[in-house]
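Hi C.,

You asked whether I'd gotten around to modeling the 127-residue construct. I have! Everything is below, sequence then structure, no commentary in between.
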Amino acid sequence: MTYKELSYSVVGAAINVHKELGPGLLEKVYQECLFYELSNLGLCVEKEIGIPLSYKGVKLECGFRMDMLVENKLVIETKTVAEIHDIHLAQLLSYLKQGDYKLGLLINFNSVHLKNGIRRVVNGLEE
């Protein structure tokens, strides 16, 4: 599956969750429902993935946890905030860099229209 196809599937699943639940719930609720949707699509999904920090050439376990990793290549970071700030993008960028992943989706479920709450980050550069 290409990155484009994969991200299309993930965004579709996120939209399904948002249509069913609407905004205003806790982040964990959306994470669990999105995990359920993606698993039902037959995608390999892992949640709460620990990522070691590489510091001066040494890998340290610092408690970094990605919300989800799909097909071992797409990182999903979920939020339920009033608006996405640079710090949220920085968090996703850190996961991409530390895990050497190419694509990430930052999904803010606290949006009236979910399409306005999705940010795609590729190779460390926001698209």
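If it helps when you're writing up: Residues 7 and 41 are 13 Å apart (CA to CA).

Thanks,
B.
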